[in-house]
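Researcher: I'm preparing a figure for a lab meeting and need a structural model of a single chain. I don't have an experimental structure, so a prediction will have to do for now. The sequence is pasted below. Please return the structure as tokens so I can convert it later.
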Amino acid sequence: MSTTTAAKRWESKSTRLLRQFARETGGSFRAASFKGFKYTPQAALLDLERGQGELNVQVVNSSNQNSGSQECIVITYEFRPRRKLKFYLIPKKKLVLHFFDHDYRETTMPNNVLGKLFKAGSSHPSIMRAVLKHEPLADDLIMHPVADIRLKIKEHGAQLTYKELVKKPDTEMLQARVDVVKHVIEALFEQSVVYEGK
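Model: Understood. Here is the structure written out token by token.
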């Protein structure tokens, strides 16, 4: 086998995983690319039901030296907001980087169990508390106590981001995190945060 052929056949573990996940879920795989000065990372792209948009699923090496051999699952969802809600939901022990941002107000958890695991801040605490009370989501968060979930307002829309460090990620792990994000999105639609017009 030539060196060129071998190079073409070699793929990183994250590339193989994302290809497999896209295939199993009926999504598509997007290879990493450079266009001009813009880098677009590789991802599995999954269409949501009822034309609600697309999930972007990535697996990246952690830049945190304390994470050991862990990798980071990153899932993003971009949408047109109806309400300009911003929030962060992070593990209790994690440093709050938005402490001096007056757009974020401390948001209490809807129950004691989540209160022991997470801390949160939001531009609209009452809306975020309603999101967290969404029944499947509340159960999901207890199962994923190190999840980092943030909703930011961007220039042309909003972006929901889910991040979690895991060891030896596989397709089942990816699906479990995708399910959490879907429940967040369901809760956002329920609270009229996402614009549903065409």
